[in-house]
Structures are given as C-alpha cells and as structure tokens.
Amino acid sequence: MYATLASRQAHRPLLDRILSQLILLSKLCQTNSQVYGLLKILMRRYPVWNVRHDDPYDSLIDALLAGRGLTRAELQVGPEALHPPEQMQDMATAVARLERAVRDREKIVVYGDYDVDGVCSTAVLMDFLERVGADCDCLLPDRHKDGYGLKPPGVERAIAKGARVIVTVDNGISAYEALELAAVRGVEVVVADHHQQLAELPRALAIINPNRRDCTYPFKDLAGVGVTFKLVQALSAAFLTGEERRRYLNELLDLVALGTVADLVPVLGENRLFIQRGLQILQRTQRLGLRALKKVASYRDQPLDAASLGFRLGPRINVAGRLKTPDIALRLLRSTSEGEAAQLADELNRLNSQRQAWQREGIREVEEQVGPEEDVEDHIIVVRGKWNLGIIGLLASKLCEKYARPAVVCTQSSDHGLCVGSARSIPGYDISAGIHACEEHLKAHGGHPAAAGFSLEANAFERFRLALIDHANAHISPEVLQPALDIDLMLKPADLTLDTVERLAALEPF
Questions:
Q1: Burial of 191 (0-12, 13-18, 19+ CB in 10 A)
Q2: Which of 124, 128, 152, 290 has its CA 20 to 30 A from that of 386?
Q3: Mean pLDDT over residues 214-228, rounded?
Q4: Is the pLDDT at 27 greater than 50, yes or no?
Q5: pLDDT, average across residues 422-443
Q6: Beta carbons of 149 and 143 less than 8 angstroms apart
Q7: Which residue has the higher pLDDT, 226 or 374?
C-alpha cells in the first residue's frame, strides 16, 4: 500500500510525513487499513495538497492562525470591536426619519427576506419597534411566488397596510423598480442591507449598507441581521437610556448570532463578538420560540456552539421559506405562547425532515444529469430540472463540492413562463459577477462572489447557459478547478494530546 501511494511523486515528501504521523494514530484504530483507507480516499478526491505552514513551529495556535492570516488579538475581541453605528453612511438620516415615524405614529412596514438572516433581521427590528410603541407591521417574500427582495407587488402590499415608511432588511440594494414605485407613491424607504452594490444606488431616503461603495464603515462583513442590529443600536438611543438600553441590546444578540452564523459571514470583528455573546444569551433565552426550537432539535440545557446554530437550529428556520412560507419561522421567533411555539417548532421539524428527503432525491437526479466527474469539460455546471425551488441552492452547493467547479441549478417557478436559478462558486471565480455579465438574458439577479440567485424567461435559459459557460471558461483557469486539500501543518507527535484538542476548542466560535 505504501509503495502504491508514494508512487505519486508530486505527493511523496508530504505523504512520507503524513504516513509517519498516521502510523502513530493507527493504535486508535482496529487495523492500519483504516488509516491507509482514509489517506487513499483523500488522494483520490484531492489531486493537489497544500500545506499552509510547512516549517517547524513553536506555537501550534500561532501557526494555525498565521495560516489564515490571523493573530490571537483578532480572536480575542471585546466591546472595543463594536464600531459606532453612526459611521455608516445614511445612518443619521435613517434614524431621524424612523424616530419621527415612531413619535408621530406613522405606519412603518418592515420588509425582510425568507432565509435565516432575513427572518432574524425582521424579528430584531420588529421587536424594537414594538417595544417603543411604533405603529408597525412586517412582510416577508414568498420564495416561490415573489422571489428574492422587494419588488413592486411587495410595495403595493406594504401600501395596502398603510405604510408611510418601508424598511427593507437583508435586501433592497438592488430593488430599483420597487423603490422607484415607492417614491412615485409617496412612500419613503430606508434600506438596511449588506449585499454588494453592483450598479448605481437605487432611489431611497437612506441606504445603510457597509458594502455600498461610498461607505467608510470599517467592518464590511456584517450579515443582514448585523446591519439591522446597528440600526437598532443607533435608533434605540432616542428611546432607551443607560442600563435599560444596554440590557435590551444585549438580549437581542441571540437572534443576531443565529442570523450571523447561518449567513456564513467571517467570524471576525463585530461578528465574532455577536456570536460569542449571542451564544451565551441563547443558552438561557427567554424567547419561547427559540426554546421550543432547541427542544425539537434535541437541545435543552446542553452547551450550544456555532455548529449548533449552523447545522441544527438554522436549517429548521430556513426550511420554512424553502418549502412553505417564512412567516412560520417569523411567528416562531416572535411567539408569546408556549403552546403556539411548540406547535410551530414541531411543524418546522417535520418540514426539515421533508427537505432532507427531497434533497437526497434531488442530488441523485442532478448527478445523473451531469454525469461522471471525468466527463465534465466546461468550467461551470449549469443544469435545469423540476426540483422544488427551496432546495436548488442546496443542490448547487452539492454539485460545486463534488465537481470542484461553480454550479448553477435552475427550476421552473410557479409562473410557468419563468425559471429561477441558484448558483454556488469556488474560490477564484466571482459567480455574482459572472451572472451579472449575462444580465441581458435575465429578469433579475443578485448575490455574492460565492453565491447568487436569478430569474429569467424559460425560453432564454439556453442562451443564458451558453453565455455563462463562455464567461466561466474564459475567466477560470484549469488550475483553479483542481480540488485542493488545504493542510494547516504537520503536527508534532508531542501535540497529539487531549490538551491540544482543548486548546483548539478554545478558539471557538469557528
């Protein structure tokens, strides 16, 4: 076995060292074949192996952090990591308008999103507005009927509720048509978003977004719920004072942590502080909905970590918007009845089981459509089928992982003339920019370098597919498509201890 593995000369120096360390671990296994079997799987899956820290190290922790371009100081965040919310462009304008709306009892309608970040953002702002006595209501888009973001029908729904001010949370930066309609109808809009600005800013009273091009806010990686929290932090100064304000903002961090972890933003700076403190709050949360959710996810008094939010609680919130309506999840987070909270949590748990079954079947179907890895020649995968709209992002992620290249999965929307797509990418290719380059074929689009969504006329799919493949083939080098196994360092035998495990655990949240 050793001779077979070591025959791959490109890996030989690395394999010699890895094998010597795995032999030390083999005593923990029933047979050495388990160790070698794992190594064989890794070699087959990853033709390129990179060791971040190839030199002898003095400090294991410092070496691990250095490989990620980090220092201990960046992980040991305190209150000083919080930047004044007033540093965000348009924050003062937004606060002044919302303060006047609250005091004058003008109707405020919060328009959120259907994912965990958007639902938590809506819950945070509604919690505050209700606390200070605002005349307020909220709306969430239906993934299947409305698609992502505020659109003209959403503006009309808000106006039907009597809106004088609309606040978009976790969306709005690309809602050009909707915000133009709101202006024409005499409704002022405050945008609180974190998505990238792709073109000129839309027409709005205020646009709070650390990623707008002219915003000098020092931390750019806030989730949507983080931006919403900064808005509440600034606005609360007009209504709450001293210790009451500090306590209230602190108690919101369970929702902020949940949305932040679920949106996969970097766990640094303000995000790290939100998650650390939010996990502590969530452990003893008084929110009936979160307590019920913890129960159905088999958490009661057990310690929670970021993985608990990302893999247990978050998916159960997310599934409402994926398979049904996000209002179920929002009602859960805002519930004031133990009976209602338990019922809603049970429904989300059932939906999550359904999602898992559909996802397994969908993965089988898309992989059959794409074929074996060695037969894929284009630098991007673009497929279309009849999958549930709520799982196409998950299918795109699976394809991206398996085939080591960007993947786009499209499905028929409830409007049979339209297709809706979800895209995921690999490091080295900005999928949002790629889709933007094909916008002549699209009705709407938006997203991040690593993930994006869009809609288009069904009869435009083939033209879009070919255009995106051409763009990806031109902008992705073959080297980028080689799956790489990133190895932090070669561990010293003396560091193969439980103490090392405990020191690594102390670096949480990851």
A1: buried
A2: 152
A3: 98
A4: no
A5: 95
A6: no
A7: 226
